[in-house]
Amino acid sequence: MDTARHPDLTLPLCPLRPHTEHPDDSLIAQVQSGQQAAFKTLVERHQARVYAIAYRQLGDATLARDVTQNTFVALYQHIDHYQSRGQFRAYVARIAINQCRMAVRSRWLTKRLLPLREARAHQPQLELNHDLQRALSGLSTKLREVTVLYYVGGLTAAEIAEQLQLPLGTVKRRLFDALVKLRACMEVV
Amino acid sequence: MTIPEAPSSQQLAGYVTGELSPQNHVRVARALSGSAALANEREALHALHTELQGLADCEAIDVTGCVMREISQQRRSLCSPWRQALAGAAVCALAAGVLIARVPGSTVHMRSKAAGALAVAPEASVQMYAVSSDGHAAVRSAIMHPDEGWLFSYSNGDTKPYRYLMVFAVDERGKVYWFHPAYTSAATDPQSIGIQPSVERVLLPEAVHHRFERPQVQVVSLFSMTPIAVSAVEAWARRAPRQSLSAAFGPHTHTTITTVHIAP
User: Fold this and answer.
1) Measured between alpha carbons, how far is B243 from A93 in angstroms, rounded to an integer?
2) Is the overall model pTM greater than 0.80, yes or no?
3) Contact B244, B92 (CB under 8 A)
4) In CA terms, which of A26, B36, B186, B261 is 20 to 30 Å from A92?
5) Which of A37, A166, A173 lies closest to A94 in space, CA to CA?
6) Chain A partners within 8 Å of B62 (Cβ)
7) Tens digit of pLDDT for each residue in B32-81?
């Protein structure tokens, strides 16, 4: 395995901060007009959050890194379709979740049809909250998606409902169910 | 959501997230003030809520360089003469497809992600996956790394499904790299593999590795009603200028072409 592709796990934590100097939508307008450098700023600005979403959703650092890259490549390919409505964070989060779904499908194909291999020797130990991540991984995909978008992606319930095209009540119910299940799981731990 | 006297765990969860309606929030607050057990449960959920917020803090990564390299390669491919020639070939193939549209079962589909959708996608299609050295497969369409294996699946659910399939890559010099059928000996001349009708994706069973000589190839899938020999495709690839595949192999074929960059 190419270890150079894996992040240095001793790196300091990178807290997610809001950016105010250039609104995302103005950067996107620059990208849409052909200014590629503006896209770099978007990547730098959002990559930590996209990676966090992917990692919490997948529980696999290598896959999460691939998903992060694929999310931004997909974003670039479809940037002309983005309509500036101040919802870029939610838009990127939805692409990330879609890329996670594709990664899971691919992983399923691999496990099913390619020779099974030993678990990765290089499994990051980045967890400060390992029990919580394990509990999160035990949720169904539907519950985990809503939980990750809410707590990691920083989306509101209404934004999640819009991005996943679900009724608001369904999103809230999944969120509440997830909390109750996580609490039960953490109690056992 | 109407809150009865004793709220459920889900309703308490809604309370700690602040996602209840104001009326229900007040009702739960009232119930909490009269029950130590409920208050304890609320505390536990609140602690979990706080801990979950900490999940947003993750290790620092930087994929900026990788992403910018990938999109730069995609942009360059849009401008390359090789790409323009292929786009021209795609238009010709589409024109040929229009001309033969009255022939049952004949379709021509040139797929080119970076160049945009050139035609409607019929049901017969091929999906490409990159298989990493540790055995994980990921859907891939634009960039492959030299150490990755190439894996393919097909769907073949058109109203008149095709019977045979070839998948190969061809570089700008006309060198052909075979995925399906396998072609390892010049003494043999294998033909298209047989395929089944299926609206679901069918995975072709083997991940294939090649050492490519050029940084860019066109991955071609060629669906047909009759088997085609490897030698016929190689002869087609050597011709300059090349015919469209439908012109070379007949109207009862369906083709997809994807430009793939081989990362250094």
Assistant:
1) 44
2) no
3) yes
4) B261
5) A166
6) 44, 47
7) 888 889 999 999 999 999 999 888 877 778 888 888 888 887 665 544 44
